[in-house]
Amino acid sequence: NAGVMQNPRHLVRRRGQEARLRCSPMKGHSHVYWYRQLPEEGLKFMVYLQKENIIDESGMPKERFSAEFPKEGPSILRIQQVVRGDSAAYFCASSPQGQEKLFFGSGTQLSVL
Amino acid sequence: GENVEQHPSTLSVQEGDSAVIKCTYSDSASNYFPWYKQELGKRPQLIIDIRSNVGEKKDQRIAVTLNKTAKHFSLHITETQPEDSAVYFCAVHSSNDYKLSFGAGTTVTVRA
After folding, report:
1. Residue A102 vs residues A39, B19, B46, B98, B112: alpha-carbon distances, Å
2. Interface of chain B against chain A, CB under 8 Å?
3. Among candidates A33, A59, A101 on the partner chain, residue whose Cβ is nearest the Cβ of B46
């Protein structure tokens, strides 16, 4: 089991560009969570998805941010028109259906110039 | 979401001493309490967890205690070693919610 896979590990974007972060959950896991971590801060919940469904997006900004978890392929966190304040580490986590235990990926460090 | 407070924010201990980190929560429906360890530039890794029907759990040098009445739980690391240096996060899951809510983290430094 390869664990939760995130790519890219590092992503540099200029202000106004789009950022796409990908997450493949652990094999057998159908629940995906995205968290954001600012330097020296905790993990802030953004969105919770199951296959083809957004269950809870209460932590995600209403504008410029979107997430999906299609039937086939990885979960995608998309940030349009990035700004410097979007610079952070974005972690994806997955869990088996009905379990609270989360397994985290290695994260994507987004830097906006 | 759940309000989780974690203290202290930084903790420096001498190698071999114990370290204790405490978290409090607000939702009485909370039922699952994991602890994660994050080394610099790495992913958060689950080190121990406890459910609401258990008061204490131990795994070698680490233990977690839960006081449901007072709504707090603690991580105890005994005989600390330099490799214990990391940021530790507590988290809470409520039966009313889908997600884990995290504390702000404690940076533990073990002095050799």
Report:
1. 21, 24, 8, 12, 32
2. 1, 6, 32, 34, 36, 42-46, 49, 89, 93, 98-105
3. A101
- Contacts of residue A26, Cβ cutoff 8 Å, sequence gap at least 6: A1, A2, A3, A4, A94, A103
Q: Is pLDDT at A99 greater than 80 in this prediction?
A: no
- State whether residue B84 is helix, strand or coil: helix
Closest residue of chain A to B95, computed from CA coordinates: A100
* Beta-carbon separation of A104 and B43 below 8 A: yes
- A76 CB-near residues (< 8 Å, 6+ apart): A20, A21, A22, A23, A67, A68, A69
Closest B-chain CA to A106: B43
pLDDT tens profile A74-88: 999 999 999 999 999
Q: Find where tokens 């989780």 sit.
A: B4
How far apart CA A52 and CA B100 sit, in angstroms, is 21
Q: Which residue has the tokens 């410097």?
A: A84
Q: Tell me the C-alpha to C-alpha distance, in Å, between residue B108 and each of B12, B62, B63, B65.
A: 6, 14, 16, 19
Amino acid at A44: K
Residue A85 carries which DSSP code? G
**Which regions in chain B score pLDDT beneath 50?**
none
Mean pLDDT along residues A21-29:
94
